[in-house]
Amino acid sequence: MNILGIETSCDETAAAVVNSNGEILSNLVLSQLKEHQAFGGVVPEIAARAHIDHLHTLIAAALKDADIDLEDIDGIAATSGPGLIGGVMIGMIAGKALAASRNLPFIAVNHLEGHALTPRLTDDITFPYLLLLVSGGHTQLLVAEGVGQFTLLGKTLDDAAGECFDKSAKLMGLPYPGGPELQKIAMECADGAAAIERFPLPTPMKGRKEPDFSFSGLKTAVRTHVEALPAGELQRADVADLAYAFQETMADVIADRCTKAMKYFTNNYTTKEPTLVVSGGVAANKVIRARLEKLCNEKGFQSYAPPIKLCGDNAAMIAWAGLERLKKGLKDPLDFKAKPRWPLDEVKA
Amino acid sequence: MNHISNTEEDTIKIAQDLAKEIRENDVIALHGNLGMGKSVFARALIRACTDDPELDVPSPTFTLVQLYDTPKGQIAHFDLYRLEDPEEIFDIGWEDALSTGITIIEWPDRLGPYLPRERVDIHLQAGDNGNLTRKILIERVS
Q1: Does A220 sit within 8 Å of B67, measured CB to CB?
Q2: What is the pLDDT of residue A34?
Q3: Which tens digits make up the pLDDT trace of A205-250?
Q4: Contact A85, B93 (CB under 8 A)
Q5: What is the arithmetic mean of pLDDT over A266-271?
Q6: How many other CB atoms sit within 10 Å of the CB of residue A170?
Q7: Cβ–Cβ under 8 Å, residues A165 and A282
Q8: 10 Å Cβ neighbour count for A302?
Q9: Do residues B30 and B38 make contact, with C-beta atoms less than 8 angstroms apart?
């Protein structure tokens, strides 16, 4: 079975083909093809217009890359929410049109379910598993119990973790993208313990029973510290110390929330090998990754993170989620309405 | 009108008071730097307009806009932090939002020439007594 996946819910225009052996036959993301002449050069960061200009070319390229014809496709999966409504509509309508013209099943995929099922595409992880989704747009902890079956344990009440990284980096005067730059300069910190003492930061929600997150207060505290530094250009050593303290605090908060979620998981699910899957761009941060691996060791959990390429927004995950749904007989009518707001625990099984 | 906020709770109260005066088709522009409390203010305003103190109001930085249904009409909550060119606003549902209800905008300076002339400006600035204090200036302009 071959499924074509389409993703246009935010900045990325993406198309991919995945088969039922879990093989990714093609996986194209427009922003990664910037230099490609066929796509006309610069891709704006905000891609609503890019979606409509390039999606058809990208779909054709994904089929060509996979070396198959539309005749060999068994279903069309398109992200139908949550996200920016204009973008979602473009991908979803393209998917429906293809499905209608070829008389193929259409599968309306929840973007978050795409992220949530990725570990089953890459490593055949079995249900149930604990999932931490941490990116620039999302921060949530949930239990994946089955296809279309998720229990949300906690989520951010304000900023996403990746957003907090980027904005704090900006306050520290670091270039974009802020997350990786912040990690880099934090490594220059000479004395970690002293840095933490010098720049005390709040650990929002830590200790609270529900594993929710809140990051906007942390960002404000970073601002306060930056403003208290001597006026003029920021000194590199000061920024290194503050970045170190910030990163440790993020790791503390995330590990604390995961500890709560693990406890819930252990109390409510029986599995031979409890697993924590960490997905999303923030999973690339080495300090956070190391802290979570240590936590997993202590608590008897396996830790797993999909390859970075599949942690960001992509269409292979949408094709795979579509394939998993179609295998269970779940398909959607052509009048399915796009959903700008669509929490994972409201996905139908 | 000038307000002084000493705590996040004060800021929330000021936003709740403003919500009583908000009418359909109002455009509310929230000015202020990173970490000044724009999102806190917007969240309190949206919660007051929907009459739901627990309503989930995530940061729209990534999605650019979030929509809410309220008794006063639809609220479109824009965060233009990532906008690089004012023209991009037309790709994210700007004209629909202006014509259908209340529009709340964080980082309104990103709009350049497209910032509506008739609007409520809210300026959040650092206060004089301590790190978390804020001066909040609210002004209806036309």
Answers
A1: no
A2: 52
A3: 777 778 999 998 899 999 999 999 988 889 999 999 999 999 999 9
A4: yes
A5: 95
A6: 18
A7: yes
A8: 13
A9: yes
The yes-or-no verdict on residue A306 having pLDDT over 60 is: yes
Give the CATH fold of the B25-129 domain. Rossmann fold (3.40.50)
DSSP state of A42: -
Smallest CA–CA distance, residue B62 to chain A, in Å, is: 5
Q: How far A288 CA sits from the closest chain B CA (Å)? A: 21
Residue A223 touches partner B, C-beta closer than 8 Å: yes
Number of A to B CB contacts under 8 A, please give it. Answer: 85
pLDDT of residue B92: 83
Would you state the structure tokens that stand for residue B11, as one six-digit string?
């800021």
Contact A115, A45 (CB under 8 A): no
| Helix spans in chain A (H) | 48-66, 85-102, 111-123, 161-171, 178-186, 192-198, 216-228, 236-268, 286-299, 308-311, 316-327
Interface contact A89, partner B, CB < 8 A = no
Residue A43 has pLDDT above 60, yes or no: no
Q: Token pair of B126, please?
A: 């650092």
- Contact list in B for residue A138 (CB cut-off 8 A) is 62
Contact B92 A86 (CB under 8 A): yes
Residue A119: φ, ψ to 5°: -60, -20
- With CA atoms as reference, the chain B residue closest to A214 would be B58
Is residue A274 within 8 A of residue A301, CB to CB? The reply is yes
Beta carbons of B92 and A46 less than 8 Å apart? yes
A178-207 residues touching B, CB cutoff 8 A: none
- In chain B, the residue whose alpha carbon lies closest to the alpha carbon of A136 is B62
Residue B82 scores a pLDDT above 80: yes
Two tokens, residue B141:
């302009």
Q: Dump pLDDT digits (tens) for A81-136.
A: 998 888 899 999 999 999 999 999 999 999 999 999 999 999 989 999 999 999 88
Gap between the Cα atoms of B1 and A333, Å rounded:
53
CA dist., res. A29 & res. A348, Å (int): 28
Distance CA A89, CA A57 (A): 17
